[in-house]
Design a protein that fits this description.
Blueprint lengths: L6 E3 L15 E3 L4 H13 L1 H18 L2 H18 L8
Parallel strand pairs: 1-2
């Protein structure tokens, strides 16, 4: 997803909670033939693969933005410091 590619998930590891079916990828049973059919579909429909890949890249950028994640961590540290009487704000 971070590479801007469409994905095919098997659903064995919980990936289906991250991948949006029909928007960023598709799910497949973990049988080789079923997986191969999905791969062939994406190879034959490159415009769909491009759309899904672009969608996936945006999802990753929004959900895993470094600056937003560091802001969350800073707030967490400040909250913990406050709870424990260490009250200087980190800048």
């Amino acid at each position: 997803m971070a590479c801007g590619l469409p994905v095919i998930v098997t659903g064995l590891g919980g990936e289906q909670t991250v991948v949006q079916e029909g928007k960023g990828g598709m799910s497949s049973r973990s049988r080789p033939r079923a997986l191969a059919e999905k791969m062939v579909y994406l190879l034959q429909n490159s415009s769909i693969g491009k759309q899904w890949g672009d969608f996936n890249r945006r999802v990753i950028q929004e959900r895993n933005n470094y600056y937003l994640e560091m802001e969350k961590m800073e707030k967490l540290y400040e909250s913990l410091a406050e709870q424990h009487g260490i009250a200087e704000k980190v800048s």
